[in-house]
Design a protein that fits this description.
Shape: flat
Low-confidence stretches: none
Number of helices: 3
Radius of gyration: 17 Å
Mean pLDDT: 85
Number of strands: 0
Strand content: under 5%
Order of helices and strands: HHH
Length: 71
């Protein structure tokens, strides 16, 4: 039974991942992703806590989204 559950989970995850790649991302989406990663790294470096990392990622995502919309 565990093998069947694992197979269904893996195939569902693969299907969802492939559906997410069906179109090219917009500049705003790219900016959001890059901003979130960069903001998380900077937030962790400055504050060294989970709250700093999450806060930095949120701020970076917002800024990256706005910058991406303008291009």
């Amino acid at each position: 039974m565990k093998l069947r559950t694992l197979a269904i989970t893996v195939s569902t995850a693969f299907t969802l991942a492939m559906a997410g790649c069906s179109t090219s991302p917009t500049n705003a989406q790219i900016g959001t992703g890059v901003g979130a990663v960069a903001g998380g790294v900077v937030g962790d470096a400055l504050f060294g806590s989970t709250l700093g990392t999450v806060g930095g990622a949120a701020a970076g995502a917002l800024i990256g989204n706005e910058v991406g919309k303008r291009k």
